[in-house]
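Appendix B, Record 12. Input sequence as logged:
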Amino acid sequence: MVGTTIVELEGVSGSIVLDSVLQEAYQGTTLMNDRMNGEFPELKPGANAISWTGAVTKVVVRPNWRFF
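Logged structural output:
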C-alpha cells in the first residue's frame, strides 16, 4: 500500500518493478502486469505511508525525477 493505493501482487518470486510512469510491471525484460491487481502507486508531495503484508523482504522506492 502506498498512501491509499492498494497493489496486490500474486505469483511473483524474486523481485518485481512497478513503473508508475510507464504503467508497467516487469521482472528483468519480462512483463508482469498480469501478476498485479490495483492501480500503479504514485508518491504525492509530503509524507507517504508505505506498508506491506506477506512474504515481502525488501521494498525499494526509486525516484524518477524530471523537470518541466
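The mean pLDDT is 91.
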